[in-house]
Amino acid sequence: LKNTPAGYKKEYPWLKEVDSLALANVQLNLEGAFRKFFREPGVGFPHYKSKKHSRKSYTTNMVNGNICLQDRFLKLPKMQSVKIKLHRIIQEGWKLKSVTVSREPSGKYFASLLFDCENQTVEKRQAEKFLGMDFAMHGMCVFSTGERAGYPMFYLNAEKKLAREQRKLSRCEKGSRNYQKQKKKVALSHEKIKNQRKDF
């Protein structure tokens, strides 16, 4: 494929509203998908993303200071500075390479920042004791000591609340404002279960 996103801007003027590097990253992903298809036909032909079920995200690269991270504010190309919550401390020598912005079904936004850092040293420690872990269908895992992980069954505990919210959603008229509000509540319930599992 020799066509570039710039070639489509006359036909689709809304492409001018988007950062050019984000469009370039999408093109690279498409080329990678085609390359994989031609090498391994079993993978399947690349298809369009679903509007309903696709992961809403985009990636842009750091070029000539177009991305700025300063005092808990993040400035992205063609956007104003947005206040963010930093989850990790960024060291002085680290170089910002790219940012991936994603939107959860609940409406929350996350920015994943990729940094380039050299000379990362990892402390080597001698293990005093060894513990074996084996996957178990009931209760997450079993340790070599004979104990089982006390898995709290987050989904089963939240099942009644989730069912109630889904029942309310089924009664709402599709496309209405109340439908959108209730859809967000269902998404928040699923997100809470996902986060509980991840933390555990």
Account of the 3D structure:
The protein is of the alpha+beta class and 200 residues long. It folds into 3 domains: 1-47, no CATH class; 55-117, no CATH class; 136-199, no CATH class. Helix content is 30%, strand content 18%. The protein has 3 helices and 8 strands. Strands 1-5-6 form a 3-stranded antiparallel sheet. β2 and β3 form a beta hairpin. The longest helix has 23 residues, at 177-199. It is extended and about 65 Å long. It starts with 19 loop residues before the first helix and ends with a helix.
Fold topology:
Layout: H1 20-39, E1 56-61, E2 68-70, E3 73-75, E4 82-83, E5 95-103, E6 109-116, E7 133-135, E8 141-143, H2 154-171, H3 177-199
Helix pairs in contact: 2-3
The radius of gyration is 23 Å
Q: Helical proportion?
A: 25-40%
- Give the helix/strand class: alpha+beta
Q: Strands of the biggest beta sheet: in what spatial order?
A: 1-5-6
How big a fraction of the residues is strand?
Answer: 15-25%
- One letter per element, helices H and strands E, the order comes to HEEEEEEEEHH
Tally of DSSP β-strands: 8
Low-pLDDT stretches are: none
Question: Which of globular, elongated, flat, extended, rod-shaped describes the shape?
Answer: extended
Head-to-tail CA distance between termini: 45 Å
How confident overall, as mean pLDDT?
A: 89
